[in-house]
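hi! just following up on the protien thing from before. the input was this:
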Amino acid sequence: MNSPDPIQFMQTEDHFAYLYEQNTWFKSVNLDGQDRSDRLPPAWYGHSVANWEGDTLVITTSKFNGKTRLDTIGHPHSDQITVTERISLRDADTMDYEVTIDDPIYYTKPWSNKRVFTRQTDFELIEYSCMENNKSLWEGRVVPPDYDNWHTYDTED
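and the predicted 3d structure came back as:
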């Protein structure tokens, strides 16, 4: 959530999902309130349990593998972190988001961040590819497309 890149939120009857433009990452959360983490290994995104408190969706995530960072600056966290997200709609185009970080290894007390997300209707998520420092591309092990012979197709025929 601390990336400047776009995020798309999607909800069905059974799931809530975050689709991140950054690296085409995604996270899907079951809305049935069941904790399945006891039979799963620690994960990059942890394991989430969701429930409703009135009109607010509360997602509690734990059992992280401890190998990620909290943001693009690199603030650390341990495998003991618990992340609690609270999501509620103000109206059809505005969403309140609050995240609370509780990690007794790295932080002396829990801390929170609040944001307001506004629906954007003038764009869609795009493919994300970071190739500037891809040595395999620049050293010839990966061959870039031949843009001089790129073909476009007329779909009106």
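Strands lie at 7-11, 15-20, 26-30, 47-53, 56-62, 82-91, 94-102, 111-118.
The two ends are 44 Å apart (CA to CA).
cheers
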